[in-house]
Design brief:
The protein is an all-alpha fold and 83 residues long. Helix content is 82%, strand content 0%.
Length: 83
């Protein structure tokens, strides 16, 4: 890899790349089976664990649980309000 290669990489249109990825995944999720989605989630989890073997920490688990609890409470309230 040369200096020019690095400069070209750094100067890429990162916004366009992000947009392309978002479009790809939106289309992919439309046709993805539940089994594929679960495999993808498992792959992402394994990758995260290779980057951070301690992930998720107890504090992160607690924060995640609290978030899920708040969302569940709000969804229950919405369901009651729309009956």
């Amino acid at each position: 890899m040369t200096r020019d290669d690095l400069v070209k990489f750094a100067r890429r249109d990162w916004v366009a790349i992000e947009d392309d990825k978002a479009q790809y995944w939106a289309a992919r999720k439309q046709v993805m089976s539940p089994a594929e989605a679960l495999r993808l989630g498992a792959d992402l989890r394994r990758h995260a664990k290779t980057l951070r073997p301690d992930w998720p920490s107890d504090a992160e688990r607690l924060a995640d649980h609290e978030t899920h609890s708040r969302v569940a409470k709000v969804l229950r309230a919405v369901a009651r309000a729309t009956r």
